[in-house]
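Feature request, filed as a ticket because there's no other form

It would be nice if the structure record came with a short human-readable summary line next to the tokens. Right now we just get the raw output. Example of a typical job, pasted below so the devs can see what we mean:
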Amino acid sequence: MTLSIPLTLVMATYGAPSESDTPAHLGRSFDDLCTASEGQLRALVNAFRSEPVTPTRTLQFEQDVQAALRELGRHVVHYTYNHVEPAAVADQPTHAQFECERYTRVHTKTPQNVWTVFGQIVVRRVGYRPSQAGEPMIFPLAHRFGLVHGASPALAARACQLLAEAGTNQQRVLDRLRTDHGVGWGVKKLRQVSQAVSDEMAEYRHDAQVEQLLTWLAAAGESTGRHKPVVCVGRDGITLRLRAKRGSLYEVASTGTISVYDRRARRLGTVYLAYTPESGQPTMSRALTAVIRDVLTRWDGPVPRWCYVTDAGDNETGYYDDALQGMTHPRTRQVVEWVRVVDYYHASERVWTLANALFGGDREAAGWAKKMLKWMLQPGGVNRVLHSAAAFRVARTLPRVQRTEYDRAYAYLRNRMGHMDYARYRRVGVPLGSGVTEAACKTVFTQRLKLSGMRWTKDGAQTVLNLRVILLSGIWEVVYQRVLAARPQPTVGGYGASEPNEIGIAA
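Raw output as currently delivered:
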């Protein structure tokens, strides 16, 4: 037995929600709806038990029950949403206020297609015309529901979470919505909903991330261990394929991370930032600085150790020189002491470059490089590496290519020795490498925006990035609740006084 028979029964009893729904139809008792649905579920159970049980029938049974429950949910939501406003338009208040504008009630209800997590329904609601020409009509019920382009808050959140997940794309999201929720959207509708929600959530991302970091800092302070709690800041760039008038172009996008480590140097959590390609990356710099400053302002516990761990790229180094070095505490006005760390693994690459230039990439090169990497972790390690490399360089005549590679690698290490005191960093519990930030490039960008064949407009990519960093930072629920609470609501005089008081009482 398949679901077709039970669904046929329920559609015959109540009909599919449509624009032809009448007040009489909507006035059916909620108890009648529940009774009919109970009968159809019993029919599924009895049909399953009436024949030998097999794995195939078990699979079909669970799928049928799931679909039946979703259909029941759709009818429950349809019934409930259509009984929020009074059944008679005359019982609705005559006037409404919204964003300093006065509106007057029209004389009939009009239908609206509404998409929910249970599927599509039709809601008949009362509209209000503006007193001044040129303004659109408003529907207070739609504002009360928090609809976004016809999508309920629950469905909008679900669609945006799916869109923000790793390994997905627009078509997969649409397929999931159709399979899991019976929602037959197209690409245009998905983009409308996701852009609207993304823009709203981006406004509350900052405060939620600051609160998350403060929570982790409090937990780090209560932990046991020999180190001070550490706040580690990092940023990096990654190429992103953008859509151009003719083909594609590749530009460097940016990602930022702020992590909190406890007294045992264990990472408690990370908040993420990500922005599409921009010359000089000023948006990333402003956003990262704003989070840091607000954490400094609002944290009143023992001062943690602040560190900045990145490679030595131009944007990464420039940000430290311009924004972090010399930063004053917002409350104490004292200069914040930063521990600047050049990523150990980037430094290690230069050691291998030196080895290959000096020894030609053979076994001797590998032996020397491995020895130098151990020295790097000891006090004065970089200086010892440079002395060893210089000694071998004097005894060798290098071809021009190897000589150029040697000089660049040597200069890289020599010029950044002050930020490569890895022995001290280990001693005080500061991360040696920018692995968290490097991983962020993969988790934020590569796993979502760099799948096969993907090209992006900057606006489209930023829509997904806004959602993705909120999801990865673990603040989705907090941010979304604030978005819903902040949506403006019309003021309708005396609204709700004549609404049904109990479920099951026909309007």
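Something like this underneath would help us a lot:
The longest strand covers residues 101-116.
Residues 1-25, 495-507 have pLDDT under 50 and may be disordered.
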